[in-house]
Amino acid sequence: MKSLLHVLPCLLLWLSAAPTSAQSDSAIFGTVIDVVTRKPLGDVVISVTSPSLQNREEVTTTDAQGNFRIRHLPPGQYTRRVEFVDYRMYQREDLQLREGRSLRARVELVWDPTPVEFIGH
Does the reported pTM lie above 0.70? Predict the structure, then answer.
């Protein structure tokens, strides 16, 4: 009983120091497909950026069914970027995410095998 009295104040202090809104239940999720074949695209890179993000960027990839989900996002203005080899990059800059809400997207990528030119030394 005596040791419990010593531990209890530390436990209460630790719990009160934990941030209450460290993780939001807001998310950006959706599916990526090929615009012509209408088939889902796996391993597509999805990134979201926002001044609201502590790390400024969150990145994920689509699964084999073309689905993605980025969770625990704070409310704010977001830019979503979708990139996949041999496809045109897609970007949307005006996404407004609200507390406790999620944004769903269906992204249709266009195949574009044009080689990218690198200018180097």
Answer: yes
